[in-house]
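> call design_seq(struct)
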């Protein structure tokens, strides 16, 4: 028997972490308690934030192999806040996070990933520094708040790397109007605060190719909602297509001496990896996206070349016209929306073996070091399944712990032998990834 006091504590913890869907297990008397707690959270947030609009915080991460620092760039008032009005403390995911405090009280927290993390691991970073631009929205503050940007250390513990005051009356907050690019609603199911809002932006589409962009965005969206668990969650999403014109079609492919004049200056061969498609034009992307409420940004690149990139709560990129584009689209969305790890791994390159500290549990939901397997998907493993689980035909369609994942061949384990986060062969995501997706959708929509 759960006491009302214990239930209140449980529900408060669940709500803070975005998982308030436990109430169905309790009777109507307890439902009133749930309603009261949710209303209290809303009231508390409404005293601190104006959720009818947002404040965009732009900053650069300056990094080399030894250190990373934050350089604040600008603050911008924007007309939409796409997130929840009640769930403002995101699950504890990401290599970095942005937090806001009202005195000693945490009022906002959102994890994210950066290309800077990968830059710090490569040889070039030992002798050079590089800037990586970020733009993060928060609900517009009603009062002065303390902002912290934190980064996980090698032990998985967050350390503050920058802090500053956010004053809503700061006259340096920009309120300039940006270009209102044409927008088409690809999918619309209701109020932004209760939906996952995806903004798909055109990259490498000329003005004459606007209709092609809309058709490509529709095709990617249609495919996504044929894949489990998105097929059962379609009513929880809004999708907007923003037609940002480029001077030329395509994207940069430096390895083939191809360079195009495009809106967001996207490029393959990031860190000299042929298929790695990224951009650092984050300020321009955020300006263009500000015409709609959004939770996720997806850059759809007008090329038939294979590739993409995805960064948790930062940016997703994929191409439109490759035979595998639809599959890559949801793979990258798994990174950007859920923070899922890549489940493929390399035996031939020893540098990848140090990507993860195997003495601690990685934060990603779909890989484990087995240090704290109970916190991951141990509850989904059948009793007769050995841990670790052999990569043999006997366990082909079984949830277990298969060595190899997160680019690392030893000491990191994946839930299944193959998943959309490993390759393009499976139809979709494994049960562990599906559960992680549902949790995040619930966070935004419940």
């Amino acid at each position: 028997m759960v006491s009302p006091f214990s239930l209140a504590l449980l529900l408060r913890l669940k709500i803070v972490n975005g998982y308030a869907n436990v109430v169905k297990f309790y009777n109507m008397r307890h439902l009133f308690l749930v309603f009261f707690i949710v209303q209290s959270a809303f009231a508390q947030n409404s005293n601190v934030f104006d959720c009818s609009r947002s404040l965009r915080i732009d900053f650069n991460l300056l990094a080399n192999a030894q250190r990373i620092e934050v350089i604040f760039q600008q603050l911008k008032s924007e007309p939409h806040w796409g997130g929840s009005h009640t769930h403002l403390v995101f699950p504890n995911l990401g290599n970095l996070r942005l937090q806001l405090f009202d005195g000693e009280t945490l009022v906002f927290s959102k994890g994210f990933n950066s290309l800077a993390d990968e830059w710090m691991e490569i040889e070039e970073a030992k002798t050079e520094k590089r800037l990586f631009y970020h733009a993060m929205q928060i609900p517009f503050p009603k009062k002065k708040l303390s902002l912290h940007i934190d980064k996980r250390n090698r032990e998985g513990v967050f350390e503050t790397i920058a802090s500053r005051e956010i004053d809503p009356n700061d006259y340096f907050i920009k309120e300039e109007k940006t270009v209102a690019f044409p927008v088409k609603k690809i999918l619309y199911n209701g109020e932004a605060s209760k939906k996952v809002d995806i903004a798909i932006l055109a990259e490498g589409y000329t003005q004459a190719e606007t209709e092609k962009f809309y058709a490509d965005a529709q095709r990617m969206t249609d495919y996504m909602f044929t894949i489990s668990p998105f097929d059962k969650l379609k009513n929880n999403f809004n999708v907007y297509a923003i037609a940002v014109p480029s001077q030329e079609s395509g994207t940069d492919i430096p390895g083939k001496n191809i360079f195009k004049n495009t809106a967001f200056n996207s490029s393959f061969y990031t860190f000299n990896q042929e298929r790695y498609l990224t951009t650092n034009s984050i300020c321009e992307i955020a300006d263009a996206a500000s015409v709609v409420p959004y939770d996720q940004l997806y850059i759809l690149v007008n090329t038939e070349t294979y590739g993409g990139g995805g960064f948790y709560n930062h940016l997703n990129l994929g191409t439109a016209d490759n035979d595998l584009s639809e599959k890559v689209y949801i793979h990258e969305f798994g990174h950007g929306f859920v923070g899922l790890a890549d489940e493929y791994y390399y035996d031939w390159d020893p540098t990848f073996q140090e990507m993860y500290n195997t003495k601690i549990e990685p934060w990603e939901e779909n890989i484990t070091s087995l240090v704290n397997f109970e916190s991951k998907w141990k509850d989904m493993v059948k009793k007769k399944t050995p841990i670790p689980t052999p990569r043999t035909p006997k366990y082909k369609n079984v949830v277990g712990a298969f060595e190899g994942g997160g680019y690392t061949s030893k000491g990191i384990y994946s839930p299944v032998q193959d998943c959309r986060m490993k390759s393009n062969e499976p139809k979709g995501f494994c049960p562990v990834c599906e559960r992680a997706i549902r949790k995040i959708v619930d966070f935004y929509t419940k």
